Amino acid sequence: MGIRSSELKVNKLSEEIERSEEEIQNHKREISEITETAVLSNFYKEELKEIQMESKELEKEMEENKDAALIISGHLKDLKSLMNRRKKILL
Fold first, then answer.
1. What does the record list as coiled-coil region(s) (predicted)?
2. CA distance 79 to 72
3. Phi, psi of 2 (to 5 degrees)
4. How far, in Å, CA of 87 to CA of 76, rounded?
């Protein structure tokens, strides 16, 4: 085996090392992108949980307001009647 064939082997090994390093860099980039996506996904999941909790609170408030409106509307007839009586008395 001569110097020339050793130089060829060294060149081939150097090329393989270079390709391997490029692949490693590509994998690192992919891992970085996946990690970023995972972090964003977790962030959005937390945001979604907060929004769902706020939505439930608003629904509860709406139900309470609806109940209050029903109670008030039930008393409107009585209130109108009292106002009419008051008008008659004042006239």
1. 3-68
2. 10
3. -95, 180
4. 16
Supply 57's token pair.
Answer: 């609170």
Tokens coding 6: 């050793």
pLDDT at 1 over 70: no
How close are the terminal C-alpha atoms of the chain, in Å?
A: 128
Question: How far apart are alpha carbons 9 and 63 in whole angstroms?
Answer: 79
Q: What is the pTM of this model?
A: 0.51
Cβ atoms < 10 Å from Cβ of 49: 10
pLDDT in tens, 35-88: 999 999 999 999 999 999 999 999 999 988 888 887 888 788 888 888 888 888
Q: How many Å apart are CA 71 and CA 76, to the nearest integer?
A: 9
Rounded Cα distance, 34 and 21, in Å: 20
Residue with tokens 């009586």: 85
